[in-house]
């Protein structure tokens, strides 16, 4: 009876460990129950950690990196000229950099806003 309890608890531990490594905890739990918690632990230790993989995060489509194809509604990279799913010709989306003035890091609108605020603060617009 103690062996079965140890087997199940060790399998649960393998499942939790697999979940922390970015893998399916339930699938690894089932694997550990079926083959052995010790063998599953060896296989899991040899596998890579998917939770800390920056490449996977970069490849995930996001509004910053991808647009929706107008024909097939699939996500494609903004720089793409042809949709890889349907072959539709696309116009690459290139975001223009925000212009700065004098290397200060301020945009033209921010400088105008600061000047207007200073003018209001000194009463130029209040009729003095």
Describe the structure.
This protein has 128 residues and is mainly alpha-helical. The chain folds into three domains: 2-55; 61-95, no CATH class; 97-128, no CATH class. Helix content is 46%, strand content 5%. The protein contains five helices and two strands; from the N terminus they run ααααββα. The chain has a two-stranded antiparallel sheet with strand order 1-2.
* Strand count: 2
Shape: elongated
Q: Secondary-structure element sequence?
A: HHHHEEH
Which whole number gives the mean pLDDT? 80
Counting DSSP H or I runs of 4 or more residues, the number of helices is 5
Structural class: mainly alpha
Approximately how much helix is present in the residues? 40-55%
Strand content: under 5%
Quick summary:
This protein is mainly α and 128 residues long. It has helices at 2-20, 25-34, 37-46, 54-59, 108-121, and strands at residues 66-68, 75-77. The protein folds into three domains: 2-55; 61-95, no CATH class; 97-128, no CATH class.
Note the topology:
Blueprint: H1 2-20, H2 25-34, H3 37-46, H4 54-59, E1 66-68, E2 75-77, H5 108-121
Antiparallel strand pairs: 1-2
Features:
single chain; 128 residues; mainly alpha; two-stranded antiparallel ribbon; 2 strands; 5% strand
């Amino acid at each position: 009876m103690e062996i079965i309890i140890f087997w199940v608890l060790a399998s649960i531990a393998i499942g939790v460990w697999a979940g922390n490594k970015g893998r399916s905890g339930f699938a690894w739990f089932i694997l550990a129950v079926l083959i052995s918690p010790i063998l599953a632990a060896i296989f899991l230790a040899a596998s890579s950690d998917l939770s800390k993989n920056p490449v996977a995060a970069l490849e995930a489509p996001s509004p910053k990196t991808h647009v929706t194809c107008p024909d097939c509604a699939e996500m494609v990279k903004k720089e793409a000229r042809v949709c890889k799913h349907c072959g539709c010709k696309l116009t690459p989306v290139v975001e223009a950099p925000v212009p700065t003035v004098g290397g200060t890091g301020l945009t033209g609108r921010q400088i105008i806003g600061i000047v207007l605020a200073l003018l209001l603060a000194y009463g130029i617009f209040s009729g003095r």
